[in-house]
């Protein structure tokens, strides 16, 4: 799925409209995530009605004000507007963590053709491997809200990071979803090695103490025999 936007420029819907255009940035924001492509137009009344629903859906899964551990989800707005001003009107109503393609980017139309989008609003949901989870999830989002994400998650076989509660991640975007599994695996193996080391060390210590006790006993016996010999010479 990362390949879908490599060598492209994704823009963040924040005040500065930061651009993500390096391979590392694109990989960090898309790898091991469920991707939602939102095709819409400001002239469409149904789109205008759906945007608040989609915003609520997205906030409950990504916004720290609603959820402690944001889900592995990315939303990209693919504008089918006729002007940049129309696109801006839609973006003003959308969450600041939403990404979008610039209006002058012709890739918007290519994506529309690629996913055979004929009606708006349309939300195409993709697995991390790029395969389609849902050709249009608008009705599911309206009907089930954020609960439908769990079905997508199971189908995509995503692994949550949130079960590693004590881990401090420097940059969550640059970590693999399977990273906690590897950490847990290695931690378990380290514990096993420590137990084996302590067991071996304890055994050696015990054998060493027995050897010292034997040497001490032999020395005491020799000292007693020496004392007897001295007594006899007297």
UniProtKB/TrEMBL annotation:
Pfam families: Thioredoxin_8. One of its GO terms (cellular component) is mitochondrion. Residues 32-132 form the Thioredoxin-like fold domain. It comes from the Eukaryota. Residues 216-234 have a biased composition (Basic and acidic residues). One of its GO terms (biological process) is photoreceptor cell maintenance. Residues 203-234 are annotated as: Disordered. This is Nucleoredoxin like 1. The lineage of its organism: Eukaryota, Metazoa, Chordata, Craniata, Vertebrata.
